[in-house]
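ARCHIVE CARD
Drawer: 12
Card no.: 0347
Subject: one protein chain, sequence and derived structure
Cross-reference: see card 0346
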Amino acid sequence: MDTLQGCWENLPSVILLEIFSYLSHEEKISASSVCRQWRCTLFHSTFLQSIHFKARGEDVNSLARTRYLSSCFAKKLRNAIVSLDSLNPLCVREVARVLQKLSENSFVRRLILKPSHCRFECPGSEREQQHFIERNIISPLKTIIKHSRELEALSLGCSEELATYSCVLLNLLGRFQSRSLRQLHLASVKDDPNNYIILDLNYSFFQPFHMLQVLSIDYDYVSDGLLEVFTKPSNGGLKCLIIHVHGITKHHPNTSNQAWSLFCQYNPQCELRLTLIHSYDAVEVLHSDILRSSMPLTHLKAFFCEQVNLATLNLLSVWFYKTLRSVWWVDSCSSALLIDAVDEGQPDPLVMAAWRCTHLEELVLIGYRCYDADLVAIARLRGPKLKRLDVTEEDIVDFLECESFIDLQYEVSQALKRSWQPLSLDKLDDVIHSPSAGDSDEFILPVVLQDQDW
């Protein structure tokens, strides 16, 4: 028995790796309890092709864990997701170390950044902070782009600070990764939507990327010229185009319906996800200057724009009834406005969308008051195909009556064929209670970063 025990403990690593390769993840964990050598095999780089590094300020162990993972595996893994509390200088420094380790790995294929906020908090003066970002984050990113053998995906995590280096990074990507890059996320969330830098980001930067399938970009750089870049024969065309709208300048060329029509011919499977973020001016002209009937619009989100554009909501069921899948309209509940028809006697535009938009599966309405009868109508029209219907209790007109509460829950649950109830305001982010009660980044970023998950 002792001889057999010694044999199992001293199996050659090549044989152990072969054994582990046939096991599921749970089975590998069970097998790792046999002995120390088997435990070490569990952490072999062969089985850790993807790692999610997490540097969170509220988790006292996350920095040590991240440092250990980066020191052991960052030079060999293929896919890296890096989440961080970007307002915590210690977390920013730790992520800088992770990126430095990854820059020594020529096998990186996917690098996804997921900051907690659109800005980074670094020690020192404003100039010192900028120097830190350039030296410790941008410089490793440039090295990764140059040395990676086949970079397939890069996301800047909607960071406004990192997005200011888009021209430099795009130039390198075009030179070194044009034949492999399939996903590129440059869209950002602005700290001040009324005052931010607009880069000299010409559509010609995107011409080398014939394999690109997913692109996120700010509306400031969207034009007919950009759409035309993707009207050339390629590897199946774009699958998803994500556009973030912030401010809108009077000199912006907008896009033409003709350009979108041609774009759709060459990218027939493309989803358009349009997100407005603190777009106080753009939301007013959304229906007239931004939306076009030939757009392949599947997702429309409006975050903290402080008004609803009823003309836009009415267009959803007219222009996008074949493509629309998701609508979010979110604002603070402290100044909730009533969504109602433009003309008295006209049906609610969201009810019309539920009726005509045959693929609608998600409706999130926070900070805008609605009638319980309209919610029941939406639920009945979509049925179980509506996977998400979010409204808050406070936003439902006359919802405080106990009998109305029970009836509404029952009617909507019956229509959706699952248990449903409105959201309780005390379970939502503080910024939903009041614009000054929290940071909107904490609500917006998880949603827009999820849009990038492909």
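Annotation on reverse: The longest strand covers residues 271-277. The chain has a mean pLDDT of 89.
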